[in-house]
């Protein structure tokens, strides 16, 4: 694992993964801060949905008993952090809270507890892909077509089973992609640089874009892939960077490779668009957030000459890396699905973030 090559150097002083400061140097190391307690509670509230998924994992012997122990162990560590932030390798932050959860799941034999729902949502989204692309292609104006594609990314990004509230909604009713497109919070969004991005987009400037993707289902298939297809149509080479290992319902490198192969026709096209410039990379990541000081050699090699970096999703583009600077243009795009994130940004729950930074040469 090596630093992402498009981060400014020196990495140690110029890059901080976590967006929200859980504590400051003046805070008492032996006392949990209000922010730490608030986020510990966010992760604690997700335990029942994770336990339920783990209990039904037919690939794991004695899954219900192991799921019970996982839930108890993780809840215990979270309570320890409330009492003593320095316990269990703390003080905790957004990366550590997720890492401990994923490590515990693997320790008890759970490799991918969301596999079943990911497969189901991928199949649904694949069936809708032609319709979504057709609606986009029918928009003649470049700027309006871009906004439609961006709205599709936001609508797809709501498929996030790391949010306790959304996990419950999915288990009851599911969520309609096309309906979500129509019902996004109105602009201006909490961070809204779409007009600036649109102005650059129309000039067709980027030669190579790296997109750090997020969730399975509608997110990757109906949100990111139509957007990536449009970049390809405009002559941009596109690298899709996906997780090496499963985390919540995030799409993995192997799953994304399979999805794209299913969507291509016999000529290797995505509904009329050549995919010879589409690459899929293993980011080396195993969390729903990402620390760009550690990525795979493969991704680093493929990214070194990119002139646009896109971090998509609340975990990669908001909770981590929202303020990250790069040597090239960058875009952070995602939906706000935690009240705590909305409060930090001064926005609303299910608000949208579209943060664009253009490098001045």
TrEMBL record:
Which key words are in the record?
Answer: Hydrolase, Manganese, Metal-binding, Nickel
GO MF annotation: an example: hydrolase activity
Task: Name the domain of life.
Answer: Eukaryota
Which InterPro entries does the entry mention? ARMT-1-like_metal-bd_sf, ARMT1-like_metal-bd, At2g17340, At2g17340_3_helix_bundle, Type_II_PanK
SUPFAM superfamilies recorded for this chain? AF1104-like
One GO BP annotation here?
A: coenzyme A biosynthetic process
Domain Damage-control phosphatase ARMT1-like metal-binding, which positions?
Answer: 43-353
Query: Which cofactor does this sequence's record say it needs?
Result: Ni(2+); Mn(2+)
One GO cellular component assignment for this chain's record is:
cytosol
- Name of the molecule in the record: Damage-control phosphatase ARMT1-like metal-binding domain-containing protein
Q: Which organism is it from?
A: Arabidopsis lyrata subsp. lyrata (Lyre-leaved rock-cress)
């Amino acid at each position: 694992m090596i630093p992402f090559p498009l981060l400014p150097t020196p990495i140690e002083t110029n890059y901080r993964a976590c967006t929200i400061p859980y504590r400051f140097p003046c805070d008492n190391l032996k006392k949990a801060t209000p922010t730490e307690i608030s986020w510990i509670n966010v992760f604690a509230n997700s335990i029942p949905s994770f336990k339920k998924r783990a209990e039904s994992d037919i690939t794991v012997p004695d899954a219900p008993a192991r799921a019970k122990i996982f839930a108890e162990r993780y809840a215990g560590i979270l309570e320890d952090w409330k009492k003593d932030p320095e316990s269990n390798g703390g003080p905790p932050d957004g990366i550590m809270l997720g890492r401990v959860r994923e490590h515990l799941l693997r320790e008890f034999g759970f490799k991918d507890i969301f596999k079943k729902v990911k497969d189901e949502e991928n199949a649904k989204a694949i069936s809708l892909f032609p319709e979504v692309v057709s609606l986009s292609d029918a928009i003649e104006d470049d700027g309006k077509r871009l906004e439609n594609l961006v709205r599709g990314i936001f609508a797809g990004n709501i498929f996030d089973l790391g949010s306790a509230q959304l996990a419950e909604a999915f288990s009851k009713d599911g969520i309609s992609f096309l309906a979500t497109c129509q019902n996004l919070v109105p602009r201006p969004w909490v961070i809204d640089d779409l007009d600036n991005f649109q102005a650059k987009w129309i000039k067709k400037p980027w030669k190579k874009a790296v997109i750090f993707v997020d969730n399975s289902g509608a997110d990757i298939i109906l949100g990111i892939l139509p957007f990536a297809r449009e970049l390809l149509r405009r002559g941009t080479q596109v690298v899709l960077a996906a997780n090496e290992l499963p985390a919540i319902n995030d799409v993995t490198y192997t799953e994304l490779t399979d999805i794209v192969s299913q969507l291509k026709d016999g000529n290797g096209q995505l509904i009329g668009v050549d995919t010879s410039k589409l690459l899929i990379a293993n980011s080396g990541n195993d969390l729903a957030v990402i620390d760009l000081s550690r990525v795979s050699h493969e991704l680093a090699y493929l990214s070194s000459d990119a002139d646009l970096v896109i971090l998509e999703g609340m975990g990669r583009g908001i909770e981590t890396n929202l303020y990250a600077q790069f040597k090239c243009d960058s875009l952070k795009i995602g939906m706000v699905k935690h009240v705590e994130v909305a409060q930090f940004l001064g926005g609303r729950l299910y608000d949208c973030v579209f943060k664009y930074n253009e490098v001045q040469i």
